[in-house]
Design goal:
The protein is about 30% helix and about 35% strand. It has one domain: Electron Transport, Fmn-binding Protein, Chain A (Pnp Oxidase, Chain A, Roll). The chain is α+β, with helices and mostly antiparallel strands.
Length: about 210
């Protein structure tokens, strides 16, 4: 991922948090020289391995899992909030439109998980992430043979992360006044724009603390 130094995020804890918050990701592999992508929910285990382990599953009918090869990296893309930035947000000066956003690219080696108990545990964990806080959270009843049989329709896998690339493009190359102008404009926008404004506000506060 092209990332100027000013936009590069190297803090693994920050990247892990972005991945956990934006855990509906894109798995990218290659087949016959062509890229293949699937949108899917992913659970991060930050404490496993040097940079974490991702667990997920694909429909068995989805041929992408057949692209997994020993020692060959795959890419998982996590997209955080993003927003259009108009030149009108800046103090009077020549400028052009741009886009602010944050993203993480996680590269790693996938390993298929086929032990039934491990697959069921992975599914329980994934469902638990999304059922948390619900009045009557769903949980699979593995004593029901129908539920167990359905696991045959998926391929579970774990990706040991080998490298992380993080980018937070939040107008870091602009003046404080310009950054504040962007914040003020986005703070009155849609929820996605407000999230970018909040990230920029935190960044700017940290900068002012340093100086």
């Amino acid at each position: 991922m092209y990332t100027p130094a000013v936009n590069r995020e190297n803090d693994t804890a920050v990247l892990h948090r972005m991945m956990q918050v934006n855990n509906f990701a894109i798995l990218v592999t290659s087949a016959g020289g062509a890229p293949v992508a699937t949108h899917l929910p992913v659970v991060l285990h930050p404490g496993r391995g040097e940079q974490g382990v991702l667990v997920a599953h694909l429909a068995r009918a989805n041929p992408q899992w057949r692209h997994f090869q020993p020692g060959r990296e795959v890419l998982v893309i996590f997209q955080d909030a993003h927003a259009y930035v108009s030149p009108s947000y800046y103090t009077p000066a020549f400028s052009v439109p741009t886009w602010n956003y944050s993203a993480v690219h996680a590269y790693g080696i996938p390993q298929i998980v086929d032990e039934p108990a491990a697959v069921m545990a992975m599914l329980d964990e994934l469902v638990g992430v999304y059922e948390q806080g619900r009045p009557a959270p769903y949980a699979a009843d593995w004593s029901d043979e129908r539920a167990v049989n359905l696991t045959g329709g998926i391929v579970a896998f774990a990706i040991t992360i080998t490298r992380l690339e993080g980018k937070r493009k939040l107008s870091q190359n602009r003046s404080v006044a310009d950054r504040q102008g962007v914040i003020d404009a986005l703070a009155n926008g849609n929820p996605n724009e407000q999230k970018v404004a909040a990230a920029m506000t935190a960044d700017l506060a940290q900068l002012q603390e340093v100086h």
